[in-house]
Specification:
With 216 residues, this protein is α+β, with helices and mostly antiparallel strands. The chain has one domain: Peptide Methionine Sulfoxide Reductase, Chain A, CATH 3.30.1060.10. The protein is 36% helix and 18% strand. The chain is built from 7 helices and 8 strands. A 6-stranded mixed β-sheet has the order 7-6-1-3-2-8, covered by helices on one side. Helix 4 runs parallel beside helix 5. The two termini are 25 Å apart. One of its GO terms (molecular function) is peptide-methionine (S)-S-oxide reductase activity. It catalyses: L-methionyl-[protein] + [thioredoxin]-disulfide + H2O = L-methionyl-(S)-S-oxide-[protein] + [thioredoxin]-dithiol; [thioredoxin]-disulfide + L-methionine + H2O = L-methionine (S)-S-oxide + [thioredoxin]-dithiol.
């Protein structure tokens, strides 16, 4: 649950702040939405970014995923502020990938295979608008792919309830604090990870028909 997650990370936050002589967390954390040469980027909000980051990084063709915040109006938000549900931001992952190996369309499939897009402002035990489902796009082509995916899934029997996933232009992305990055990799025995993140990942592996990297 959100409270458990906040409490479990508060110690990390305090440690980081105590090591920062300026005590500044989340300042100037905007990420330039420009992909390296030959690469592409895409952003997805599908609940806890610890889980989402781990899932996308397991997909063949994905170079890395960064945990952060998008979809809101607050500039340079912090984790604590986003959890007040007043910033408009959702926990989001920015995915860096090789478009010659994996397409945006396939990443959209990863998105729908890895969370429940029918629960408004909730994903598993986490509740609030910061955990809502959002498909971000940067181009008209990506928007059309996302729209078609939502339409196709809505017309199928894949989910028993209506899709509530938002479709939004990616206007800004803010990198989350460092203790959130690759959280599952660094904290495999943390309570939330064992109770929520790992089971969600295992469920994704059973549902996803695409290629995953060795070791996953």
């Amino acid at each position: 649950m959100k409270l458990v997650k906040i409490l479990s990370t508060s110690i990390f936050a305090l440690l980081i702040i105590s090591c920062n002589t300026n005590g500044q967390v989340g300042k100037n954390n905007a990420v330039k939405l420009v992909a390296p040469k030959g690469k592409a980027i895409a952003a997805f909000a599908s609940g806890c970014f610890w889980c989402s980051e781990h899932i996308f990084e397991a997909v063949v063709g994905v170079d890395s995923a960064v945990s952060g915040y998008a979809g809101g109006t607050t500039v340079n938000p912090t984790y604590e502020l986003v959890n007040t549900e007043t910033t408009g931001h959702a926990e989001t992952v920015l995915v860096y990938y090789n478009p010659t190996i994996v397409s945006y369309e396939e990443l959209v499939e990863v998105f729908f295979s890895s969370h429940d897009p029918t629960t408004p402002n909730q994903q598993g035990p986490d509740r609030g608008s910061s955990y809502r489902s959002v498909l971000f796009y940067q181009t008209d082509a990506e928007k059309n792919i996302a729209m078609n995916a939502i339409k196709k899934i809505s017309n199928s029997n894949r989910f028993s309830k209506p899709i509530v996933t938002e479709l939004a232009a990616l206007k800004a992305f803010y990198r989350a604090e460092e203790y959130h990055q690759d959280f599952i990799e660094h904290n495999p025995n943390q309570a939330y990870v064992r109770a929520v993140s790992i089971p969600r990942f295992e469920k994704f592996k059973k549902a996803y028909k695409g290629k995953l990297k060795k070791g996953y």
